[in-house]
Amino acid sequence: MAEHPYGYVQDGKVYRKAFGEHPALEIGEVKDTPEAAFSYYEQRYQQLVEKINQLEQDIQEKSNKGSYLMKLLHLKETLPQYEGLGDFEALHERLEQQENYIREIIQQNRERNLEIKTALLAEAEPLREMTDWKAGAELAKDLKMRWLRTGSLDPEHQDKFEEEFNDLLQGFFDRRSAFFADRKLMLDERQKQYEMLIIEAQRAVMQPNSRQALYDVRNIQQRWRDIGKIPAEIYKPLLYEIQRITRPVMQQGRPQRHAGGDRPGGSRPMGGRERTQGGGYSGGRSQGSSGSYQGGGSSSYQQGRPQGQGRSYDRPQGGRSYGDRPQRQYGSTSGTGEERLEERRALLERMRGIDPHDRNAVQAVEAVQNEYKALGFARTPEVARISEQLFDTGNLLREKHFLNKLAYAKIPGIEQESIQEQARQKMRLLRDLLSRDERELQTYQENMAMTSPGSSDVAKMMETKLRSQQRKVKIKKMLLEELQQQANS
Questions:
Q1: Contact criterion met (CB below 8 Å) for 15 and 25
Q2: Domain coordinates in residue numbering, the chain
């Protein structure tokens, strides 16, 4: 039997001697001579020593010492089964020393992390009551970045601190979302009130008693001033419309100036108020002319929408409702264009071939519609049928495209679901949208019932809105039926 300081050869096999609590280990066979076998396993031991030397150097030189703990533990676990000849007892002691050193560093870091995260929680506490949404969002973002840069805590603290911090931030963003949702409802309601006053003003100016008409118009003006602010881009057309309707009545009721500019009895029109440039409708509540809405004395309307929100679901590019069809001004044909049926049918097939999942689907729909309009307008049943199908298909594609974007934004991982499950998820979103559109349609129908028939601008405006809303409901119902078929397939 051949001997080695850390091993021996017996019956043609090489053994490593026991060390510590680990028994002797068979590590190989003698291929040539015992001396050659000893030399080979000494080299393997030396390779292990070089790995440990490099690990110790990295631990001393690098700042992220805790990241080397797992590598160290792995090396330590391999020692009892490692096939080599050398002083494994010494290697085990070196690894033990490095492990203790790293664990001490980790403990110190976790104590410091606990102090930092405790301070971050205190900084986040104001988010519970904060209503300055812009400043709050910036604070939450800064705190989140600093929290992530701070290392982990002891297991006894980790989950508790993470839950409390996340609840603080999520609570703020939930309150912010609820605020803007409520404000949108409020602004929508105010807009409807303005529209109703326009309808009332139209009825008021049509009555034969001019004195009663003036009284009613001034009453409408006072109620107009009391409604409250809405975005300037929505308010300006409404203000222009009611001024146009009521201006003749107000001009007839204005007292004539006497010599020297004095009014009889020293009175002023508008019940003692100075008349504003807009005919008395601004009152003490300036709507602003810069396109912004000053809400709460802090942020402008343009800043009022929460971050991450884009344009509304039913308002695609260009600001026009996706269901609005262009006016029939097809070139210079003026209703006497040629049928050109083959070209029209080809465009209809191109429209049907557009993929609603394509990111450029809306632009493709617009392009086909523009080409179709360039063909001109012909008053024949076949052209009417093709036109109806083409524009309905285009609107349906827009609806699918926007519904897909909404589903991907609101339902993470939906693209991994089956076609049937995707259809069911989208149906839930679409039913909510359809319900809202049907409520708006009912409102328009009620407003139309109170509008005097005729060719006035208000009547035309209301009729246009009604037709647009009817198309939106029709298209959503078509898509809902299509999704129902996919869900049941």
A1: yes
A2: 2-111, 154-251, 323-410, 412-489
Are 269 and 251 spatial neighbours (Cβ–Cβ below 8 Å)? no
Nearest to 394 by CA among 425, 415, 373, 374: 373
CA 332 – CA 375 distance, rounded (Å): 10
pLDDT tens-digit readout, 107-164: 888 889 999 999 999 999 999 888 888 999 999 999 999 999 888 888 888 889 999 9
d(CA 181, CA 175) in angstroms, rounded, equals 10
Full-prediction pTM beyond 0.85?
no
Reported as a pLDDT band with limits 50, 70 and 90, residue 281 is low
Full 3-state SS string of the chain: CEEECCEEEECCEEEECCECCECCEEEEECCCCHHHHHHHHHHHHHHHHHHHHHHHHHHHHCCCHHHHHHHHHHHHHHHHHCCCCCCHHHHHHHHHHHHHHHHHHHHHHHHHHHHHHHHHHHHHHHHHCCCCHHHHHHHHHHHHHHHHHCCCCCHHHHHHHHHHHHHHHHHHHHHHHHHHHHHHHHHHHHHHHHHHHHHHHHHHHHCCCHHHHHHHHHHHHHHHHHHCCCCHHHHHHHHHHHHHHHHHHHHHHCCCCCHHHCCHHHCCCCCCCCCCCCCCCCCCCCCCCCCCCEECCCEEHHHCCCCCCCCCCCCCHHHCCCCCCCCCCCCCCCCECCCCHHHHHHHHHHHHCCCCCCCCHHHHHHHHHHHHHHCCCECCHHHHHHHHHHHHHHHHHHHHHHHHHHHHHHCCCHHHCCHHHHHHHHHHHHHHHHHHHHHHHHHHHHHHHCCCCCCCHHHHHHHHHHHHHHHHHHHHHHHHHHHHHHHHC
Rg (CA), the chain: 39
List, for residues 76-118, the tens digit of each pLDDT value. Answer: 999 999 999 999 999 999 999 999 999 998 888 888 999 999 9
